[in-house]
Specification:
Structural class: mainly alpha
Order of helices and strands: HH
Number of strands: 0
Radius of gyration: 19 Å
Helix content: over 70%
Number of helices: 2
Shape: elongated
Oligomer: single chain
Largest sheet: none
Length: 89
Amino acid sequence: MKEKMKKISDVLKLVFGYGIMITLFVGGLTFVGYLVALVVGGDTAALICKIIYKNIIPVMIYATTVLVIFGLITMYLAGEKALTPSKRK
């Protein structure tokens, strides 16, 4: 049973890692999009910012929420305890 949980935890850790990496990359692209809008200016800049704000950012928020749940499940299945003080000998 413990080996099965470890395998599931490893798969979820892989999904979590790649998912967070993709989400951070998309976040960087939105930053670049806002910089491009700043340089372009005018109505085009407003359209770029509107597309980023209405279409990309909500998807990023939902994706990161699901990925955090994957991360918590991974920690639970692996038996890891984060942010808890350890007893020193």
